[in-house]
Design brief:
Structural class: alpha/beta
Strand content: 15-25%
Strand order of the largest sheet: 5-4-3-6-7
Length: about 160
């Protein structure tokens, strides 16, 4: 049995390093002090819901970056699978390979009915604090709207 942590709004985002679709290692804490991060966990490259979600992040990427954020997607597929997925759909953001589901477990992203890997989006502010969490397996495209809403709240809050 896996012990899942429960990350809550207001918690420090757990740091990690994973390989990206470009083959380089990406460490979450490298963004702290520089950018907000929209960190989204998704079940699988090229599945219908995940493709809609990724394309929605792609179509809103310019607005998300104008709100001071970087978008990072995480699933358990290989670096090669992520490269094909990103190329096929023209994804301008980072996809990370969590082959052993270590980061998924670190963040407590549970499977739906024990079968389908969870779909959860975390918006992490520049200080590394989790500002918002949105979980929905079936409303894949809503993750982007929730992320934009959270980023606008961060932008409007006094520092």
């Amino acid at each position: 049995m896996v012990n899942f942590l429960v990350i809550k709004v207001g918690d420090k985002a757990p740091d990690f390093t994973l390989p990206s679709q470009m083959g380089d290692n990406v460490t979450l804490s490298e963004y702290f002090g520089k950018k907000n991060v929209v960190l989204y966990f998704y079940p699988k490259d090229e599945s219908p819901g995940c493709t809609k979600e990724a394309c929605s992040f792609r179509d809103n990427y310019q607005e998300l970056t104008s709100l001071g954020a970087e978008v990072i997607g995480i699933s358990s597929q290989s670096v090669e699978s992520h490269m094909k997925f990103a190329t096929h759909h023209g994804l301008p953001f980072i996809l990370l390979s969590d082959k052993d589901n270590i980061v998924r477990e670190l963040y407590g992203v549970h499977s739906t009915m024990g079968i389908i890997k969870g779909r959860v989006t975390y918006v992490i502010d520049k200080t590394g604090i989790v500002h918002s969490i949105f979980t929905s397996q079936i409303h894949a495209e809503r993750h982007v709207e929730e992320a934009k809403k959270a980023l606008k709240e961060i932008e409007a809050s006094p520092t």
